Each structure stands twice: as C-alpha cells, then as structure tokens.
Amino acid sequence: MAKGGRRYPLVIYTHMINRWYPAILAIGVFLLILAWGIYARGYEQWRWLAIASLGGFNVFLGLFLLLIRKSAYIQPFSDHLRLVTPFLRLNISYKRLRRTSSANMGALFPPKSVSKWQAEIIEPIAKMTVIVLELTAFPMSQSSLRLFLSPLFFKDKTPHFVILVNDWMRLSSELESMRTGLTTSAPQKKRDSSILSRLPTKDK
Question: In angstroms, what CA-CA distances link 102 with 76, 129, 157, 179?
Fold first, then answer.
C-alpha cells in the first residue's frame, strides 16, 4: 500500500460550511420554537407537525454540516494525490501532474469574473495563496468533476485543480518530496543493477 502523508483540510469547504451551518441551525431552532407555540395554542395537529418536521430537518442538516466541515482534504501519497470531499474521493496519479505553481486566490478569481455569491465567499480568503495543480488530463470527465466539486477548484477549462489549504508551503514541500521519491526510485534501481554488472566474478 502507498505510504500516505499528512491530511490538509480544504479551506474552500470549511469556509463555505462555516458560513452556512449557523444560519441553517438557527432557522431550525426558530421553527421548532414556533411549532411548540402553535401546539400550545391548540391549533390543528398538522400545522405544528409540519413546522416541527421542517425545523428538525434544519437542525439535523446544520449539525451534519458542522460535523463534516473539515472532512474535505487533500493528502499526498508516494504515487498519487488523494482529493476527498463529502461527495467525492479522487486519486490523482503523479503521472498526470504536469507542474505545480502558486498564486493568489483573489488574483485567480477577481470579483468581476465570478458571480456575486462567489465573490462574497472569496472576499475573506482573497489574500490566501493557492496551489494550482496543472495536469495532462483530468482523472475523470470534467463535467462530473464540476458536478461534485466547488467551481472555485477551477480557474478555467484547462486540466487543473486549484487547491487552497492553510499551510500551502508545507503541502507543496511534501508533494515535491513524494514526487521526487517516486521518480528517482526507478533510475536508482537501474543504476545499482548497472554497477553490479561491472563487478568482477570469480571463475569456477
């Protein structure tokens, strides 16, 4: 089994969920209180049951988002990168990785090039540095990836991923270390074999 490195939480998912779950949770609690008030006043059963059910669903959804807010991560392995989100688990072979580069989040997604709601999400993290993984090809169809990943993983239609983590320098260093170990192991073995072939052998 390939050796795995550190898991780096994906800031995009944590940031987005941190924006959503408090409001969803608050709405759920409000609806439950409202349902209790309707029940206490003796209104028809279906009224408070409907509102209580909706409130319970919102509370459940808010708590679920709170629990999974750091479940999205990227993890380097000795022969691939693993990208994990609540709805997708993707292995990216280093053979597909053409090069990596760093960029400013706000520079990749200027406010005028994105929708209003995306600009609001990007604003607090605009000064953070991202790692852009440029690929020879996507590991699965681009339409499927865009269905399961946030639009902020893609700066354009070329094969790549925009990765935002808190410690981008450590991820970059670990990634290069893993890739170097993969690319140098085979030539080293070949070289060792070549050296052994030159050693003199005793005549029988």
Answer: 17, 7, 18, 17
User: What 3-state class would DSSP assign to 46?
Assistant: helix
H-helix or E-strand spanning residue 31: helix 11-40
Range of the domain at 105: 74-183
Tell me if 71 sits within 8 A of 86, measured CB to CB.
yes
Q: What does pTM read for this prediction? A: 0.74
Block means of pLDDT (10 residues each) for the chain, length 204 residues?
80 87 92 90 84 93 86 91 90 92 92 85 92 94 89 92 94 88 49 43 46
Q: Would you report the helix, strand and coil content of the chain in percent, each value rounded to 5?
A: 55, 20, 25
Residue 144 within any structural domain of the chain: yes
Nearest to 5 by CA among 134, 183, 188, 177: 177
